[in-house]
Design goal:
91 residues; Recoverin, domain 1; two-stranded antiparallel sheet; 4 strands; 47% helix
Length: 91
């Protein structure tokens, strides 16, 4: 006798722009209104990146317009755009 087995395929949903904004803002651990490389790295780790250090360096190159080594509030949109292009999803 054969049993019916229902299999569910896991579904991944992409993060929204607002979700990523909130995730990055929540990683501003010292509350100075800007994200350091260490804070960006922690955020990418939270997102599940296997290469969080690599992602943080590339993100800073992409988003840090004034080259001060931080992602300020005005640069956050560029950081989120970069993260969206990377395709992070909610599993």
């Amino acid at each position: 006798m054969r049993k019916n087995v229902t299999m569910f395929k896991p579904v991944s949903v992409s993060f929204t722009r607002d979700q990523l904004m909130n995730i990055f803002r929540s990683h501003d651990l010292d509350g100075d209104g800007k994200l350091s490389r260490k804070e960006v790295k922690a955020a990418f780790g939270y997102l599940g990146s296997r290469w969080d250090s690599y992602r943080a360096v590339l993100a800073l190159l992409h988003a840090d317009s004034d080259h001060d080594g931080y992602v300020g509030e005005e640069e956050l949109k560029k950081l989120v755009d970069y993260a969206l292009k990377c395709g992070y999803t909610i599993a």
